[in-house]
Amino acid sequence: MTAADFRMPAEWEPHAATWIAWPHNRSDWPGKLAPIPWVYGEIVRKILPREKVRILVSSPAHEKQARRVLGKVGALSAEVEFFPIPTNRTWARDFGPIYVRRTTPPEDLAIAGFQFNAWAKYKDFQHDCRVAQRIARATRCPLCPVRLRGEKFVLEGGSIDVNGRGSLLTTEECLLDRETQARNPRADRKDVEEVLKDSLGAANVLWLHQGIVGDDTHGHVDDLCRFVAPTRVAMCRETNPADDNYRILEENRERLEGFRTEDGSRLQAAFLPMPAPLFHAGQRLPASYANFYIANGTVLVPTFNDPNDRQALGVLADIFPGRTVVGIHAVDLVWGLGTLHCLTQQMPLSTSETS
Questions:
Q1: Active-site residue among 174, 225, 236, 342?
Q2: Domain 6-354: which CATH number of 3.75.10.10, 3.40.640.10, 3.30.70.120, 3.40.50.170
Q3: Distance between terminal CA atoms of the chain?
Q4: What's the mean pLDDT when you consider all of the chain?
Q5: What would the pLDDT profile of 159-191 be if each residue is shown by its tens digit?
Q6: CA distance 317 to 40
Q7: For residue 155, how far is the Cα from the chain centroid?
Q8: CA distances from 337 to 86, 133, 327, 341 (A)
Q9: Which pTM value belongs to this model?
Q10: Residue numbers of the chain with a pLDDT score lower than 70
């Protein structure tokens, strides 16, 4: 794979479908699994009017439950497709297929074949690390393995965000760490940049410092700062100096001021508030409005029964005037240490579908 051959489309570009994995792992939502399928049902219902939803199910029983829930909420239609592909967890953003588009004939979709190692934290990922490969086979989409010096390169979809034109946002905490949760412990900054350039067409890597408190992925950018246009981002900002996120977000904001896109343009920022801290068993949860998902015609935004919910929805409504901005209740969902962007993965339209 070379940068001249592939480009990762931006999330706001037209989708053919959204991938999700039906929830089933009780340890992901300790004591909270029961309401989670209903949240998924609402997510599917909001995505459906303008694109397909493709659902990974780990067993016939999971598919039966999914069909029952979707039927109850009015979200079971021919636009919902089930794939019997088992998963350990349900964070499809991180282990699902990362699609790229060929820039040379034949100009069609492929899947960048990154490795998944459960955020270098969990031991049970024997199913998740095969999902992208199995989807490629099931949908007859080419899979292009990504390697560094002959070794499989580890990358999660939530660790990056692209503008579709050659610029990519990530954090040093996630992709350069060699001690806490090391994805590629023998890779340095130059190595990572070369891989991102060759596999995703991202010749311009923009390095933020670290992610928000409570993020067990160790620095995913999709809880922090997101491209919303080729030269514009939505970025979280904490106004309370006593909050643990204040310093982190201010440092990232200062870095952002010096960033330029691939064509030399200065990045413009729209700031999202942070909700008040949420905790489970003494652990701070990664509640963030930046974990929104851009679907065809719709933007789904996590909400937390917080006074700042309305402000966050307003900021994103101003950014996306051509899309319906919808809040999805995520207080139960974030117990799993992720919300809407973490559980979705977009499949862009193929070249034949866009022509």
A1: 342
A2: 3.75.10.10
A3: 25
A4: 96
A5: 999 999 999 999 999 999 999 999 999 999 999
A6: 22
A7: 12
A8: 21, 25, 18, 12
A9: 0.97
A10: 1-4, 352-355
